[in-house]
């Protein structure tokens, strides 16, 4: 959160090495406060949930923070989501693939083909087309998603999700 907005964390309020459960929960409560101050919507999420390791609620916070980071990145580029989507669709079309996304979160992304073709369009040698599966079966979608994440890392791209998230 400090990286998203420098100065947002008052490190004097953070127990660097919490000695007990109460100090851990206090740190987690402070983390939820900072997340709310950054604009995250944390309805029904408490520091105790974080301390307990509630995966679903942790992911809810994580996704909001990643989205904020992504939106800041787009702002730096002076672009909005519509421009990014238009650009990505144009790149994928150049690759000869007829998949076009209507919005972020479009179900067509689940096969992994779109992401791999986008990476091929941007960096032709990054993805061997022979490794791209049609994405018709669950196994093919998993293989494509894993390849997409691996390739994105190799390209030095910001990766905001795991391969499982692509399938959802």
TrEMBL record:
Keyword Repeat applies: yes
Keywords: Actin-binding, Repeat
GO cellular component: actin filament; actin filament bundle; cytoplasm
GO process annotations (BP): actin filament bundle assembly; actin filament network formation
Domain Calponin-homology (CH): 1-70, 78-168
MF annotations from Gene Ontology: actin filament binding
PANTHER family tied to this protein: FI19014P1, FIMBRIN/PLASTIN
Record's protein name: Calponin-homology (CH) domain-containing protein
Gene source species: Emiliania huxleyi
């Amino acid at each position: 959160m400090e990286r998203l907005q420098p100065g947002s964390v008052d490190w004097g309020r953070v127990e660097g090495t919490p000695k007990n459960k109460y100090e851990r929960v206090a740190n987690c409560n402070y983390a939820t406060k900072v997340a709310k101050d950054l604009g995250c919507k944390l309805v029904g999420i408490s520091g105790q949930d974080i301390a307990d390791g509630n995966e679903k609620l942790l992911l809810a916070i994580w996704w909001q923070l990643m989205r904020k980071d992504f939106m800041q990145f787009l702002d730096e580029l002076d672009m909005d989501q519509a421009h990014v989507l238009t650009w990505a669709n144009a790149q994928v079309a150049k690759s000869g693939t007829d998949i076009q996304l209507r919005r972020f979160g479009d179900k067509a992304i689940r096969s992994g083909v779109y992401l791999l073709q986008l990476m091929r369009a941007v960096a032709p040698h990054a993805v061997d087309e022979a490794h791209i599966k049609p994405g018709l079966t669950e196994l093919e979608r998993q293989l494509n998603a894993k390849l997409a994440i691996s390739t994105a890392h190799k390209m030095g791209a910001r990766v905001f999700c795991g391969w499982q998230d692509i399938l959802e």
